[in-house]
What does this fold into?
Amino acid sequence: MTKIIIYTGLSLPFEEAREILDSNDDVEVIYKRPIQRGDLSLALKENPDIIGIIDGVFHQNSAVGHKEILKAINEGIKVYGASSMGALRASELDSLGMTGIGYCYKQYATREIESDDDVAVMLDSETLEPLSIPLISMKYVFTNAVDKNIISETEKEELLKIAKSEFYPKRNYGATLAKSSLDNDKKTELINFIRESKDIKKEDAKELLETIKNEVIGID
It folds into this structure.
């Protein structure tokens, strides 16, 4: 039997994750809360074949270390990363065997972004509900808004500058737009576009699960 451990719950709720990848007669999938320092040492005792890192703590507790991930890789475990902490660590360790997936990973890998602050989110520690908007999600949406001629490149840069100036737990679209120079009509159009836009961190998390499902263990 193939054993898979996935760290998520924030970018992708457990219920939605299980709709994509769940246990069956041949596969055991264990979903765990966002990873922190020391969790992988405990996970290795469960003898997993595959580990997927999506969400992890950044500032609340010590983040998962590079040596922990490398130890898992060196023991023959396939380690995938996407969306949040997983994307960051995969960009740092892809040359050493960790597989990165999705938009957020590519943003780090190409050095379009470099700070862990770009994917950091304030969350409810009990429910794992996000209480702020990560900067990388704002960048994704605002870039698409430029492509749709809703805002200009200059307006996009203004919005991102405002968002980046805020401490990550306080980042949200409402506060960012309120401080911008956009007129009310443009703000309304942009708000409607935001509501219709995909959550790129969630999409990356789904892609990680689909990759494991289709390419690694071959579930139809």
